[in-house]
Amino acid sequence: xxxxxxxxxxxxxxxxxxxxxxxxxxxxxxxxxxxxxxxxxxxxxxxxxxxxxxxxxxxxxxxxxxxxxxxxxxxxxxxxxxxxxxxxxxxxxxxxxxxxxxxxxxxxxxxxxxxxxxxxxxxxxxxxxxxxxxxxxxxxxxxxxxxxxxxxxxxxxxxxxxxxxxxxxxxxxxxxxxxxxxxxxxxxxxxxxxxxxxxxxxxxxxxxxxxxxxxxxxxxxxxxxxxxxxxxxxxxxxxxxxxxxxxxxxxxxxxxxxxxxxxxxxxx
Length: 268
Fold this sequence. Notes:
The protein has a domain at 103-267: MFS general substrate transporter like domains (Growth Hormone, Chain: A). Helices cover 82% and strands 0% of the residues. The chain has helices spanning 2-41, 66-118, 122-134, 136-147, 153-172, 177-202, 206-224, 227-238, 242-267. Helix 2 (66-118) runs antiparallel to helix 9 (242-267) and helix 4 packs across helix 6. The radius of gyration is 50 Å and the shape is elongated. The N and C termini lie far apart (133 Å).
């Protein structure tokens, strides 16, 4: 029986050893899985790529964006505006040179011209020449009325045509000196108003208008100091009034060209 017991006991123990792993394996497997899953629990972070220096962007009209782009565009427009105003100022200075030279030359020598060509006394010729000064009121009030209803260049062109009529009329038909004096007087009053109305139109502030007006008048009155002595010298040299009248004609043409160009530039 002992042998039988031991004989039977060995297979039972053998079966016990074979069945034990089947029952104990599920208890060991989670521990093995946990042991294998530990290295994969922490996911390492990928390093961020370092950005190198970026190439500079080309600066152009299409790349002007944001505050800097707006500032650059504004600066460009400002410089363009400054150049335009400066150009108009020089054209107006040229026009005022012709205006002032013609005005002071005629004012200084018209009485003597009428006395020589029409045989008037100095008193009569002086009274006749005063029409040149009185008629200035017509031009001074007429130019603003015309400028309100027409483009800026129209009053300047009309005043220039009236200015040119004065010396040509005195050369070709001196007997009509009263009409030429009235026409020239209206032109000289309107010319002053036309020039400085353009100054007021293009200036962006009162300070800029004052600077432009001072520059225009300074250059113009400097040229005016040359007109009367030069006209008197031409009369003395030639013994006639044709050369002085041609000088006045040249001055009125300068006024017309400079004034019309300035008016066109102020319109654009």
